C-alpha cells in the first residue's frame, strides 16, 4: 500500500460544491453559467442517463426480472445505493428507527425520484397554528425562484387557484388513466379533492432548450431518461454546467470535513478518493454543501476546529436537530369491474397523473397539518412479483361461468385468472407533514463508529408522536372510504398494531431540517440566504436548511432555495463579501 | 427537441425497432473521475455485475429438486391455446436463479419440496414426481386452496403459495408471458388518454379531473 499522505492542491477554486443532486447541481449550474470557477465533489460514480439509464428494457432482460434485490426500487431503477451501503453504516439511539437512503452517483437521488414537483404554500413558510417555527422567508420571497425553476426545468400541471397549493408555470398535463377516473369518482364521493398531478416531465419540448427531448410516454422516469425528458440533476444541471467549461466534477470523492483557518473562515474541504483511498485537500473561496440533509449535517459536525469546537456552523447546537421525513402510509385493492379489460398502452408519464392536495381543516381533527395522496395502478409491465397473492383475489369474484370458486388453485383456470385480473389494481399512498422536533436528530455516533474511510458516522434518534400516528390513522380511514366508494375489493386496513401503516422515518426519503435557517443565530445554523451565521463563506443548499417541510415533496423547494442562494453568492462576490 | 427529434436522437425515430440504446456513442466526454475508468456494463455498479456472475455460477437445487420444480411449475401454468407452459418460458431456471438472488426463498423452497415428497411417500409410497397424475392432483388439492385446506396442511399451503407466486413471476415476466398478458407498453408513443370506446364501456366519458 502506498504510504498515506494528504495530497494538497495548490489551485484555489472560486467555489467548491459538495454533492451533485438537486441542491448542489442547481448551485453549480447557476454559478458556472455566471462564469464562476466551480469544483464539484460527488461521493459516487459518474452517471449520465443518456448512456446509463435502463429505460425501455424488458423485464426478461433482468435475471431477477426487475426484483429489488440490489436496488430497492427494482433492478432497472436508476439509484446506485439504497438504505444500506456496504462499508457506510449508521447507528440508532435507544432502539429508535430511522432509515437513511443514499444514492451515490452524479445527480444523486434525482435520477430515480418520482418527479412529483410541488411548491410549498404561504402557510408552510409562516404557519398560523404556532406549532413550529416560521421560516425566515415567505412564500412570496421564494415565488420568483419557483417560477424560474418551472421555466428552466419544466413542469406539467393545471392552474387550480388553491392557496396552500400554489400554481406554477405549467406544461400541458398527461391525461388520466382509466383507473384514475374510477379513483376520481370514489374520492369525490368521499369528499376528497382530486386534481391533475404536477411533475417535472417535458410533456412538450422545453422552449429554448435544445439538449432535452420531449417525453415519449414510457412511464419509466424512475430509470432516468435517455433523452433528458424529465428532471435529473445529472442531465439537466451538472452535465450542462460542465459544458460551460467553468465547472469540474470529481466523482468518487467522499468529503470528510470542511477546512477552516484560525479565524474560522472556510478555506476548502478534504476528501477521500474512494478508489485509491488517498486523502486530498482542495481550496476554495466559498464552500457550498449540497450533500443531503444527513450528509451535510455529518460533514459540519465532523468539521471541528479551535474556532468551531462544536462543529462548523454549530455554535447554536442545532446542527442535526429537527430532522424530519414525510409521513407515509398506503393501501390498495383491485377493481372487479375492470376484469377482462381491453389492452392498450397506458404507460403515460412516470410521475403522477393525478393527486389529492390536502383538503381539510385541522381545527376539527386530532392531528396538526395534513397530507396529500398519490395514486397508482393499471396495466404495467409484468415483472418480479406479478400475480403475487392471486389466492386472495381469484376466490373473491365470480369466475367466467358466474360461479365463485375457492381462492388459489393451479392449471389452465388459474392461468386465465392472471389474465382476467391484469390491470385491475389500484393503490394510494399518503405523504404528510411530520412536525420538526428538536428531539428528533442525528449526531456523530458517540461510541466511535466510523465508516470504511475512517469518517465518524451518524447516529439517529427519531420517534413518531401521536401527531403523526393520528395522521396515518386518518389516511387509512380515508383510503378505505375511497376504495369502498370505487367498488374495489381490498383486504383489512392497517390498524393500531402497525401504527396504521405509518412507515419508519426515512422510508419516504424526504428527510430535511438538520441545518435549519433562521434569523436568530442562537436558534439556527443558517441565515435566510442559507449562509452559515458562524462562517460567512459557507452555504448549505440541500434540504438541510428547511425549517419545517409541508406535506409537499422537497425537491422543487430545494431547487428554488439553491437557485436563490447561488444568486445571492453572485451578488456578494460582486461586493467582495465572499 | 420535440418528441420526433428526441426519438431520432436515440435511434427510434426512423428505424422501426430493435435499435439498442447505448450503442450510440456519447457526444461528450465524461468529466475527470477519480478512478479514470468506466464500469464494464453501462448503468451497473461493478459489485452488481460481480454478484450476478457469482450467483449464476452457483447451483442451489439438486437434479431431483429441479425436476420437482419443473413438474409443479407446469401444473401451475400449463400450455394452453394462448401460450406455452411455465417450463417453455424457462420458469424453473428463473426459480433456480431467484432463490440464490433472494436467499430468504432458499429454505422455504427446499424444505417445502421435502415436505411434499414426505407427504407423498407416506400416502403413495413415492416421491411427488413419481406419483400418478391423479395422486398428484389429490395431493395438490390439499394445499392449493388456502381457505379450505386443513390445519395440518399449513406447511404445504405456505409452500404452494410461494411456488405459485414464483411461477407467476417467472412466467408473466418472460417474453412469452408478457406477450400473452397483452402488455402493450414499453414503446415510444404519445399518450392521448383512455381510448373513446373504453371510456364509453365504463361510462366514464364525463369524468374529468
From TrEMBL, chain A:
<dbReference type="InterPro" id="IPR007867">
    <property type="entry name" value="GMC_OxRtase_C"/>
</dbReference>
<comment type="similarity">
    <text>Belongs to the GMC oxidoreductase family.</text>
</comment>
<dbReference type="InterPro" id="IPR000172">
    <property type="entry name" value="GMC_OxRdtase_N"/>
</dbReference>
<dbReference type="GO" id="GO:0050660">
    <property type="term" value="F:flavin adenine dinucleotide binding"/>
</dbReference>
<keyword id="KW-0274">FAD</keyword>
<dbReference type="Pfam" id="PF05199">
    <property type="entry name" value="GMC_oxred_C"/>
</dbReference>
<feature type="domain" description="Glucose-methanol-choline oxidoreductase N-terminal">
    <location>
        <begin position="30"/>
        <end position="325"/>
    </location>
</feature>
<keyword id="KW-0285">Flavoprotein</keyword>
<dbReference type="InterPro" id="IPR036188">
    <property type="entry name" value="FAD/NAD-bd_sf"/>
</dbReference>
<dbReference type="InterPro" id="IPR051473">
    <property type="entry name" value="P2Ox-like"/>
</dbReference>
<protein>
    <submittedName>
        <fullName>Choline dehydrogenase-like flavoprotein</fullName>
    </submittedName>
</protein>
<dbReference type="GO" id="GO:0016614">
    <property type="term" value="F:oxidoreductase activity, acting on CH-OH group of donors"/>
</dbReference>
<feature type="domain" description="Glucose-methanol-choline oxidoreductase C-terminal">
    <location>
        <begin position="448"/>
        <end position="561"/>
    </location>
</feature>
<dbReference type="Pfam" id="PF00732">
    <property type="entry name" value="GMC_oxred_N"/>
</dbReference>
<keyword id="KW-0560">Oxidoreductase</keyword>
Automatic annotation (TrEMBL), chain B:
<protein>
    <submittedName>
        <fullName>Gluconate 2-dehydrogenase subunit 3 family protein</fullName>
    </submittedName>
</protein>
<feature type="compositionally biased region" description="Basic and acidic residues">
    <location>
        <begin position="25"/>
        <end position="35"/>
    </location>
</feature>
<feature type="region of interest" description="Disordered">
    <location>
        <begin position="24"/>
        <end position="44"/>
    </location>
</feature>
<dbReference type="Pfam" id="PF13618">
    <property type="entry name" value="Gluconate_2-dh3"/>
</dbReference>
<dbReference type="InterPro" id="IPR027056">
    <property type="entry name" value="Gluconate_2DH_su3"/>
</dbReference>
Amino acid at each position: 500500500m502506498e504510504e498515506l499522505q494528504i495530497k494538497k492542491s495548490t489551485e484555489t477554486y472560486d467555489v467548491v460544491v459538495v454533492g451533485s443532486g438537486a441542491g448542489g447541481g442547481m448551485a453549480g449550474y447557476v454559478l458556472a453559467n455566471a462564469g464562476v470557477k466551480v469544483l464539484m465533489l460527488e461521493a459516487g460514480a459518474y452517471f449520465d442517463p443518456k448512456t446509463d439509464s435502463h429505460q425501455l428494457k424488458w423485464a426478461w432482460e433482468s435475471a431477477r426480472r426487475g426484483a429489488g434485490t440490489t436496488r430497492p426500487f427494482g433492478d432497472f431503477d436508476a439509484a446506485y445505493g439504497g438504505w444500506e451501503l456496504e462499508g457506510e453504516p449508521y447507528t440508532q439511539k435507544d432502539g429508535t428507527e430511522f432509515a437513511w437512503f443514499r444514492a451515490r452517483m452524479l445527480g444523486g437521488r434525482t435520477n430515480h425520484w418520482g418527479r412529483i414537483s410541488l411548491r410549498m404554500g404561504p402557510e408552510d413558510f409562516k404557519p398560523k397554528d404556532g406549532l413550529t417555527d416560521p421560516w425566515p422567508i415567505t412564500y412570496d420571497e421564494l415565488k420568483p425562484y419557483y417560477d424560474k425553476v418551472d421555466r428552466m426545468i419544466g413542469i406539467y400541471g393545471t392552474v387550480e387557484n388553491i392557496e396552500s397549493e400554489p400554481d406554477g408555470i405549467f406544461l400541458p398535463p398527461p391525461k388520466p388513466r382509466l383507473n384514475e377516473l374510477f379513483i376520481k369518482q370514489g374520492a369525490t364521493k368521499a369528499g376528497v379533492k382530486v386534481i391533475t398531478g404536477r411533475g417535472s416531465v417535458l410533456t412538450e419540448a422545453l422552449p429554448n432548450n435544445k439538449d432535452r427531448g420531449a417525453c415519449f410516454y414510457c412511464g419509466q422516469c424512475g430509470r432516468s431518461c435517455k433523452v433528458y425528458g424529465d428532471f435529473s440533476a445529472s442531465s439537466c444541471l451538472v452535465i450542462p454546467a460542465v459544458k460551460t467549461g467553468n465547472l469540474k466534477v470529481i466523482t468518487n470523492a467522499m468529503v470528510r470535513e470542511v477546512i477552516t483557518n484560525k479565524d474560522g473562515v472556510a478555506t476548502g474541504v478534504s476528501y477521500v478518493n474512494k478508489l485509491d483511498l488517498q486523502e486530498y485537500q482542495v481550496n476554495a473561496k466559498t464552500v457550498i454543501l449540497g450533500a443531503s440533509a444527513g450528509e451535510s449535517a455529518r460533514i459540519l459536525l465532523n468539521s471541528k476546529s479551535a474556532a468551531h469546537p462544536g462543529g462548523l456552523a454549530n455554535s447554536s447546537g442545532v446542527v442535526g436537530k429537527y430532522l424530519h421525513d414525510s409521513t407515509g402510509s398506503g393501501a390498495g385493492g383491485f377493481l372487479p369491474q375492470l376484469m377482462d379489460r381491453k389492452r392498450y398502452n397506458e404507460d403515460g408519464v412516470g410521475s403522477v397523473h393525478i393527486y389529492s392536495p390536502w383538503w381539510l381543516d385541522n381545527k376539527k381533527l386530532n392531528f396538526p397539518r395534513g397530507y396529500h395522496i398519490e395514486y397508482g395502478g393499471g396495466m404495467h409491465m409484468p415483472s418480479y412479483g406479478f400475480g403475487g397473492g392471486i389466492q386472495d383475489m381469484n376466490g373473491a369474484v365470480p369466475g367466467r361461468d358466474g360461479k365463485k370458486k375457492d381462492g388459489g388453485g393451479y392449471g389452465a383456470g388459474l392461468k386465465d385468472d392472471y389474465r382476467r385480473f391484469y390491470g385491475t389494481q389500484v393503490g394510494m399512498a399518503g405523504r404528510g407533514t411530520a412536525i420538526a422536533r428538536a428531539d428528533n436528530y442525528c449526531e456523530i455516533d458517540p461510541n466511535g463508529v466510523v465508516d470504511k474511510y475512517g469518517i465518524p458516522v451518524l447516529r439517529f434518534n427519531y420517534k413518531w408522536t401521536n401527531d403523526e400516528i393520528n395522521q396515518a390513522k386518518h389516511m387509512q380511514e380515508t383510503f378505505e372510504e375511497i376504495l369502498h366508494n370505487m367498488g374495489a375489493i381490498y383486504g383489512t386496513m392497517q390498524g393500531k398494531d402497525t401504527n396504521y401503516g405509518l412507515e419508519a422515518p426515512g422510508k419516504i426519503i424526504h428527510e430535511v431540517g438538520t441545518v435549519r435557517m433562521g434569523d436568530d443565530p442562537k436558534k439556527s445554523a443558517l441565515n435566510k440566504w442559507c449562509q452559515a451565521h458562524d462562517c460567512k463563506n459557507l452555504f448549505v443548499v440541500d434540504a438541510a436548511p428547511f425549517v419545517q417541510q409541508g406535506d409537499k415533496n422537497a425537491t422543487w423547494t430545494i431547487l428554488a432555495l439553491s437557485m436563490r442562494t447561488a444568486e445571492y453568492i453572485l451578488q456578494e462576490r460582486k461586493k467582495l463579501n465572499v | 427537441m420535440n418528441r420526433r427529434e428526441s426519438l431520432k436522437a436515440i435511434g427510434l425515430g426512423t428505424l422501426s425497432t430493435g435499435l439498442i440504446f447505448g450503442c450510440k456513442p456519447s457526444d461528450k466526454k465524461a468529466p475527470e473521475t477519480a478512478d479514470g475508468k468506466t464500469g464494464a456494463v453501462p448503468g451497473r455498479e461493478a459489485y452488481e455485475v460481480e454478484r450476478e456472475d457469482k450467483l449464476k455460477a452457483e447451483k442451489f437445487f439438486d437434479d431431483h429438486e429441479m425436476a420437482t420444480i419443473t413438474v409443479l411449475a407446469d401444473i401451475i401454468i400449463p400450455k394452453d391455446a394462448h401460450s406455452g407452459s411455465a417450463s417453455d418460458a424457462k420458469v424453473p431456471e428463473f426459480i433456480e436463479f431467484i432463490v440464490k438472488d433472494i436467499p430468504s426463498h432458499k429454505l422455504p423452497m427446499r424444505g417445502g419440496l421435502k415436505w411434499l415428497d414426505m407427504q407423498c411417500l407416506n400416502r403413495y409410497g413415492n416421491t411427488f414426481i413419481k406419483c400418478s397424475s391423479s395422486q398428484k392432483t389429490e395431493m395438490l388439492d390439499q394445499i392449493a386452496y388456502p381457505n379450505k385446506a386443513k390445519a395440518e396442511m399449513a406447511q404445504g399451503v405456505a409452500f404452494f403459495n410461494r411456488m405459485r407466486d414464483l411461477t407467476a413471476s417467472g412466467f408473466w415476466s418472460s417474453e412469452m408471458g408478457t406477450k400473452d398478458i397483452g402488455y402493450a407498453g414499453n414503446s415510444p408513443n404519445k399518450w392521448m388518454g383512455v381510448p373513446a370506446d373504453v371510456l364509453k364501456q365504463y361510462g366514464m366519458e364525463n369524468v374529468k379531473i
